[in-house]
Structure formats: C-alpha cells, structure tokens
Write a structure and sequence with these properties.
- The chain is mainly β.
- The protein has 1 helix and 7 strands; from the N terminus they run βββαββββ.
- It starts with a strand and ends with a strand.
- The model has no long low-confidence stretch (mean pLDDT 96).
Length: 104
C-alpha cells in the first residue's frame, strides 16, 4: 500500500489513542495540516514526552503519475482512499513529488 511521508509536528490530544498534528508540503509549496490518531500516522508510541517533529505517513491511493515541464516526477495521491483521511481544510487529493511517496 502507498503512503505519503508527513512530518508529525505535535501532540494535540493525549486522550487515548492520542491525536497528533501532521504537516505535508505539496509540489507547489502549499502546506497542508492534518489532525489524526497517532497510531494511524506512526508506528512509534507518541505522547507529550515524545520529541517533535518526527516522521509519519498517511496511507493513500496513487491516482496518477507524470513528469512536469520542469522534469519533476509528480504524483496525484488520494488520502480519502482507503482510510478517509483529509486535511483540516477538507482536502484529500494532493499533487506531491514522487520522492514523498512510499510504495511498500
């Protein structure tokens, strides 16, 4: 399953299972923020004692891949599938650099 690399910036709610804020910068430089359950975006146990920022991931479906006019490998990724994850602004489709995608 594919996932997008994100930066976990802080713990926002320590109540089980714990909610964290994540940051994604898309291919155009726009920053997107997510608030999600810690175990959904990281395999590490996250708490107020954890060091931030730290790496995280958001699972996604790759909808399209192409090379832009600047020679960059781009990916259109949908985070609504398979786990219904969206940014705090309500976005779930992102154009990102191919290097931001893990295809394990």
């Amino acid at each position: 399953m594919a996932s997008i690399a994100v930066e976990i910036t802080q713990l926002v709610d320590e109540q089980f299972p714990g909610f964290v804020e994540c940051r994604l910068v898309d291919a155009t430089g726009v920053e997107h923020r997510f608030v999600e359950k810690g175990p959904v975006v990281s395999q590490a146990p996250l708490s107020s004692e954890s060091q931030y920022p730290q790496p995280g991931f958001i699972v996604c479906v790759i909808e399209r891949e192409w090379i832009d006019e600047h020679g960059r490998s781009l990916v259109c990724a949908n985070t609504d599938k398979p786990c219904s994850i969206e940014s705090v602004a309500g976005c779930s489709i992102f154009v990102i650099l191919d290097a931001q995608v893990n295809r394990e």
